[in-house]
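fyi for ur records
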Amino acid sequence: MQLTFLGTGGGLPSPSRGVSALAVQIGRDILLFDCGEGTQRQFMLSSLSFMKVSNVFITHFHGDHFLGLPGLMQSMNFSGREDDLHVYGPEGTVETVSTVATLGAFRPLYDIYADEMADGDVVDLGFCSVRAIAADHTVPALSFIIEEPERRGRFNAHRARELGVPEGPLFARLQAGETITVRGVEIDPSEVLGPPRPGRRIVYSGDTRPSDALLDASRGAEVLVHEATMDSSLEEGALEYGHSTARAAAEMARAAGVGQLILTHISTRYDSVEMLEAEAREVFPNTIVAHDLMSLPVTHRDNQR
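which gave:
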């Protein structure tokens, strides 16, 4: 699982930051969360291909979160896309995508499907699920929780040997969850596997004021990607416009016990992010401020040190 921040600015692009777009790569699939203007070009500057985007999740319909859809869809078309594209978002998604998909003379050669999500709705993609949480913004908005299925428990090689299982293919079959037979005795995987372990979980806040619902959904997550539009000296203005400060995001990360906090949606008022990063790290040390094209892997909590 890999996160690539295609755009990390809030409101409008700046010379150093595009606007909101986060690519989550899981295996060969890429999920795109928000699609600010210019996202398809950001893909071209990254190591990822926009042609591998299977699903797009839009948090809300402020321009810096969705105006890249027309360009992305048309670039996919010009590049010969044939695979379906699914777009999910809050109330208004079906109408918005329908409008976007018919702008100008654009006639897609592939099928585009739009679905609206509400608080608690889940899209099960098999290799992961995406759950929507109502965000606290100035328009209907969502946060998203990306979660992998449970993993099998740890394999106890010592116990397998005690049961007479020779190392090699039979070990592999037990690890894969198969029942095997050794010298006429059936051995069930439960005899050598520990309890199931949770898959990795990423939380993407979108634009939101601090939220108890998001706090609950974030508990124990590997990564919380949270907006930090302003610093704490501007907290009143942040709340008025439906946003969070860097300190508030850090307080959320600490209370939720997440593995790592990544701040994004940075206002154009900040030429440097040192202030934002410093105030967040005072509360939650494992914090970084994302920059455009930053890419990092997401490791399981039980593998983190």
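The mean pLDDT is 94. thats all i got for now
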